[in-house]
Design goal:
By secondary structure, the protein is of the alpha/beta class. The chain has helices at 2-24, 29-47, 63-66; strands at 49-55, 68-75, 84-90, 93-96, 99-105, 108-111, 114-121, 124-127, 130-164, 167-211, 218-223. The protein contains 3 helices and 11 strands. The longest helix has 23 residues, at 2-24.
Length: 226
């Protein structure tokens, strides 16, 4: 009888010890997997930003299309397409997902998202969403311009600031236009030029002033909406 009780006691202790070991030992590959995944994610997140990039063509090398730049990117002759916070300088052309700083190029500058700061090139500056700062080139275009457009031709759907050019064309203007020909649908602010046209403008100063909402739709030297 004593032997049977001793055997049962030993079996019970063995079962308890095995269960405890199974719960506390390497049965936890899941945390290890999670740690590996977390470390990989950390490395990937660390690679999402780079202080310096050099591009040769659009997205060549590949990191210029997927890694954001916080610092400086140089394109020879073209830069990459990822977002830049800092300076993007290219020889012939720059096409960024967005700019926070300065985008400079001999040929053209394009921002497919918001451009905050300066876009400057010889021929063309484009901002497909919003230019918050300044565009300086022969041809400037922005869906929404907040700041300055300076060049030979300026186009914008909505401008909040100043347009200075030979030809300025905008749908909605809150600011002023100064140029040879100024065209606006609705302007809260002055148009100053040789030829000024508006459906409605608060004030026009120029040789020929056409203001459809004025008491005198056509006037010389100045005009304003009623």
């Amino acid at each position: 009888m004593l032997k049977k009780m001793t055997l049962a006691y030993l079996l019970a202790i063995g079962c308890f010890a095995f269960q405890t070991y199974a719960q506390t030992s390497p049965a936890s590959p899941e945390p290890a997997k999670n740690q590996v995944k977390a470390s990989k994610d950390a490395v990937q997140n660390a690679d999402e930003h780079a202080p310096i990039q050099i591009g040769f063509w659009f997205d060549v090398p590949g990191n210029t299309g997927r890694v954001r730049v916080t610092g400086f990117r140089f394109g020879f002759p073209f830069s990459g397409t990822s977002h830049v916070s800092g300076l993007d300088l290219s020889l012939f052309g720059s096409d960024c997902a967005g700019v926070n700083g300065a985008q400079l190029s001999m040929g053209f500058c394009n921002s497919s998202a918001r451009s905050h700061g300066l876009q400057a090139s010889v021929f063309t500056c484009l901002s497909k969403v919003e230019s918050d700062g300044a565009q300086v080139s022969l041809f400037n275009k922005a869906d929404k311009s907040k700041g300055w457009q300076v060049g030979a031709t300026n186009l914008s759907n909505n401008a909040d600031g100043g347009q200075v050019s030979l030809v300025n064309i905008v749908e909605q203007l809150k600011g002023f236009q100064a140029g040879i020909v100024n065209v606006v649908t609705r302007s809260i602010g002055p148009q100053i030029g040789l030829v000024n046209y508006a459906e409605r403008s608060s004030f026009q100063l120029g040789l020929i002033n056409i203001n459809e909402k004025s008491s005198m739709p056509f006037m010389v030297f100045f005009n304003f909406s009623k």
